[in-house]
């Protein structure tokens, strides 16, 4: 499957976040998955893409022209798609992805998380969404969302549309379990053909 990874492009963050992105990329490739990313070569975005390619995986970078112009495009991507703006970028990333994984990030990452989460709650797609948060960056967000639910702003099914993980293996296991076409066939389970 192609996993869309939303993550940071900030170069002011602790190195542990870039290391996490690299670990995600390595494990995606090891499991035979491809990557859809924001197409930047810097910080976590660059780390996850380089790690996927180093493991033999296919990478699709989607980046708006304005970011190409400031020379942060991941020109080593197997496919680099240049869009007119951020809205088109998100649409292309969505269309090319089988699942969504959110790593620690800033307001751009939050925007992407909320758009995919909202469209899932509204029944516009059934693809899995997992947030990988080893160090609790999104803890206050979870408290906020719980409060919104308690105040009646969210339906209970909002919580069914998202999963939370603290390790890379847990996150990818959750994604794989929730994608129907990745369920093992009878042959893969060791059953004989009729």
TrEMBL record:
Gene3D superfamilies, per database record: 3.40.50.450
Reactions this protein catalyses: N(6)-(dimethylallyl)adenosine 5'-phosphate + H2O = N(6)-dimethylallyladenine + D-ribose 5-phosphate; 9-ribosyl-trans-zeatin 5'-phosphate + H2O = trans-zeatin + D-ribose 5-phosphate
Source organism, top-level taxon: Bacteria
InterPro entries linked: LOG (IPR005269), LOG_fam (IPR031100)
Enzyme class at the top of the EC tree: hydrolase
Keyword list, A-Z: Cytokinin biosynthesis, Hydrolase
EC number: 3.2.2.n1
Keyword Hydrolase: yes
Pfam families in the record: Lysine_decarbox
Family: Belongs to the LOG family.
NCBIfam families linked to this entry: Rossman fold protein, TIGR00730 family (TIGR00730)
Record's protein name: Cytokinin riboside 5'-monophosphate phosphoribohydrolase
